Automatic annotation (TrEMBL):
Keywords: Acyltransferase, Transferase. PROSITE patterns: GNAT. The keyword Acyltransferase applies. The keyword Mitochondrion does not apply. This is N-acetyltransferase domain-containing protein. Transmembrane segments: none annotated. Residues 1-157 form the N-acetyltransferase domain. It comes from the Bacteria.
Length: 157
């Protein structure tokens, strides 16, 4: 597996990875009208892809700063369902954390995840992320329910 900065050429394969993740796990909860653009959220700072020699692009993670007075967010972390359990999510997080840690003004990162995805939040906790609070999401799932979000933070220095 190889992690590298995301390129425009990665987007079509990433949309396929995202579709498989949405189909299997319901992430994102609502399929975006423009999934390639969804991978670049407001305040986008950087993004990386995980590639394998046999499958091409199998994962993605980004950093975004949608709120200029709050720490940046790790965002759009997704790993193709057929390639999970191989350390890809860990490697993507290491890359995002390292990149943010080299920026003088970024001592802390944040992320959020739904309460109903214990595999994801266990990954973050295992990697040293600290749960700061839970709150209702500012969006609804397709069935109209409002999920509970778990907010995490990691101090990089």
């Amino acid at each position: 597996m190889h992690i590298r900065p995301r390129s425009h050429d990665d987007l079509q394969q990433l949309v396929e990875v995202l579709w498989r993740t949405h189909d299997q796990d319901g992430y994102p909860a609502h399929w975006p009208n423009d999934p390639a653009s969804w991978l670049t959220p407001p305040g986008h700072l950087a993004a990386w892809t995980a590639r394998t020699s046999d499958a091409g692009v199998v994962g993605h993670v980004g950093l975004a700063a949608p709120d200029p007075v709050a720490p940046p967010l790790v965002t759009r972390l997704v790993v193709h369902p057929d390639h999970r359990g191989r350390g890809i999510a860990d490697a993507l997080l290491v890359t995002a954390e390292a990149a943010a840690g080299t920026a003088a003004a970024v001592p802390t990162l944040r992320l959020d995840v739904t309460e109903e995805t214990p595999g994801a939040w266990r990954l973050y906790e295992r990697r040293g992320w600290r749960l700061t609070h839970r709150s209702p999401a500012d969006w609804t799932k397709p069935d109209g329910t409002v999920p509970t979000m778990r907010w995490y933070e990691k101090h990089l220095r």
